[in-house]
């Protein structure tokens, strides 16, 4: 939580429940409000898709890719393209929800 407070994702506040007692609580910031699931502007499904362990594990192969490997980091890690993995039952729903969430958010930006 300290890292998230330091990066302004959450803030720390002292609450006085009674005159003798102080309590530290964490509160939302404008950045963390984007992760509330019930809001139209929720970015939560996109974050969930980005931090999926299968997706994150391919980052270990970025060095090879930057040095000229023809194969993408995802293909090197899993033997299939990212788009093939998106068709798998485990990830398909997560990916579709992320794209729908992103479309809703972008439609608000484009309207304004």
Could you walk me through the main structural features you see in this protein, from its secondary elements to its overall organization?
With 112 residues, this protein is of the alpha+beta class. 50% of the residues lie in helices and 15% in strands. The chain is built from seven helices and two strands; from the N terminus they run H-E-E-H-H-H-H-H-H. The protein has helices at residues 2-6, 44-50, 53-57, 62-66, 73-78, 82-86, 89-111; strands spanning 10-18, 21-28. It has a two-stranded antiparallel sheet. Strand 1 and strand 2 (21-28) form a beta hairpin. The chain is elongated, with a radius of gyration of 19 Å. The two termini are 34 Å apart.
